[in-house]
C-alpha cells in the first residue's frame, strides 16, 4: 500500500525555490530517507508534508487522501507524526508529562467534562496515563519518568522526542535529523530503535539525516535533493554510486575522480 504520494510539489520563499517540483512515493513499512547538502530543501519538504507550509504547486496524498495545504494539527490527527531538527521537548516538564502532552489529540473527552473532572474525564485520564507509562516502558525510559526532560542525556532526549511522536499513534513518522549531535554508540542504539519501532509498531518512516553511515544502513530507499530538486532516487547502493549525487556532495569534478 502507498502511504505517501507527493506529486510535483514546489515551495518558494520570494525568489528562492526551496522545493522544486518534487515527486516521490513511500510504501507501507518502508524506511525512506531524504538526503542532500545543507539548504537542499529537506526540512522545507517535511514542513510541506506536515502542513506547516502550503505548497505553491503540486499535491500531497496521505493514504490516498489529499492533504495538500492541511494544518499541522490535522496532519497529526490523520496519522503523521514528526520530530524536529532541534529538539523541541518541554524541558521544564517531566518525561511523563511530555508524553501526555503529545497524546492529547487522542483524548475524546468534551471540554466541559474535562473542566468538571467527571467520571468520563477521569477514566480517560487514567487510560492516557496507562498508555503513556506503557510507551515509556516500551522505549526504555520508564525509569526516567519523573525527571525533567532537560536533565536527560542527549540521546535519551532524542528518544523521548520520538516517543512523544509515537504517543500520537502515527502511521507515518517523520524524523528530522534524529542522529544530529549523537556519538557513534548513541547512533547505533538509535538505528536499532528505529528498526524496532518500524517492525513492531507497523510504521512507515521518512527520515532526514546527514549521518551517511546510518542512512546507508537503515534505508530501504533514498531520495536526494539538491537546490530543491530531486536529483536521484533508489536503493542505498544505487544512490551511493550515482555520479550526480557524488557531485552534489563533493562539488563538480568529484564524480569518478574526473578533474
Ligand atoms: N521560512 C523561510 N524563509 C525563507 N527562506 C527559507 C525559509 N526556510 C528555508 N528557507 C531557505 O530554503 C532553502 C532550503 O532550506 P531547508 O531548511 O529546507 O534546507 P535543508 O535541506 O533542510 O538544510 P539543512 O540540511 O541545512 O537543514 C534554504 O536556502 C533556506 O535558506
Automatic annotation (TrEMBL):
Entry keyword Transport: yes
- Recorded protein name is ABC transporter ATP-binding protein
Domain ABC transporter residue range list: 4-252
SMART domains, alphabetized: AAA (SM00382)
The family database entries (CDD domains) matched by this protein are listed as: ABC_Mj1267_LivG_branched
Query: Pfam families from the entry?
Result: ABC_tran, BCA_ABC_TP_C
Q: Which UniProt keywords apply?
A: ATP-binding, Nucleotide-binding, Transport
Keyword ATP-binding (UniProt): yes
Q: Name one GO cellular component term.
A: plasma membrane
Q: Which organism is it from?
A: Thermus thermophilus
Q: Taxonomy-wise, where does this protein's organism fall, top ranks first? A: Bacteria, Thermotogati, Deinococcota, Deinococci, Thermales
Per UniProt, what is one GO molecular function of this protein?
ATP binding
Q: What GO terms describe the biological role, i.e. biological process, of this protein?
A: D-alanine transmembrane transport; L-alanine transport; L-isoleucine import across plasma membrane; L-valine import across plasma membrane
Amino acid at each position: 500500500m502507498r502511504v505517501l504520494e507527493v506529486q510535483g510539489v514546489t515551495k518558494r520563499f520570494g525568489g528562492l525555490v526551496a522545493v522544486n517540483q518534487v515527486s516521490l512515493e513511500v510504501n507501507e513499512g518502508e524506511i525512506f530517507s531524504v538526503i542532500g547538502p545543507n539548504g537542499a530543501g529537506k526540512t522545507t519538504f517535511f514542513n510541506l508534508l506536515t502542513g506547516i507550509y502550503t505548497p505553491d504547486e503540486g499535491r500531497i496524498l496521505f493514504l490516498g487522501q489529499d492533504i495538500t495545504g492541511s494544518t499541522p494539527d490535522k496532519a497529526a490527527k490523520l496519522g503523521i507524526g514528526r520530530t524536529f531538527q532541534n529538539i523541541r521537548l518541554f524541558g521544564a516538564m517531566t518525561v511523563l508529562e511530555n508524553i501526555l502532552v503529545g497524546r492529547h489529540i487522542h483524548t475524546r473527552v468534551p471540554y466541559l467534562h474535562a473542566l468538571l473532572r467527571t467520571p468520563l474525564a477521569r477514566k480517560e485520564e487514567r487510560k492516557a496515563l496507562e498508555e503513556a507509562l506503557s510507551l515509556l516502558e516500551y522505549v526504555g525510559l520508564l525509569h526516567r519518568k519523573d525527571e525533567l526532560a532537560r536533565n536527560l542525556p542527549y540521546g535519551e532526549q532524542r528518544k523521548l522526542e520520538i516517543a512523544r511522536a509515537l504517543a500520537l499513534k502515527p502511521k507515518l513518522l517523520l524524523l528530522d535529523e534524529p542522529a544530529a549531535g549523537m556519538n557513534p554508540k548513541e547512533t547505533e542504539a538509535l538505528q536499532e530503535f528505529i528498526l524496532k519501532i518500524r517492525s513492531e509498531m507497523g510504521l512507515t518512516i521518512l527520515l532526514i539525516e546527514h549521518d551517511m553511515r546510518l542512512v546507508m544502513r537503515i534505508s530501504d530507499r533514498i531520495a536526494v535533493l539538491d537546490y530543491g530538486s530531486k536529483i536521484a532516487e533508489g536503493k542505498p547502493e544505487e544512490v551511493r554510486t550515482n555520479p550526480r549525487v557524488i557531485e552534489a556532495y563533493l562539488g563538480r569534478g568529484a564524480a569518478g575522480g574526473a578533474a
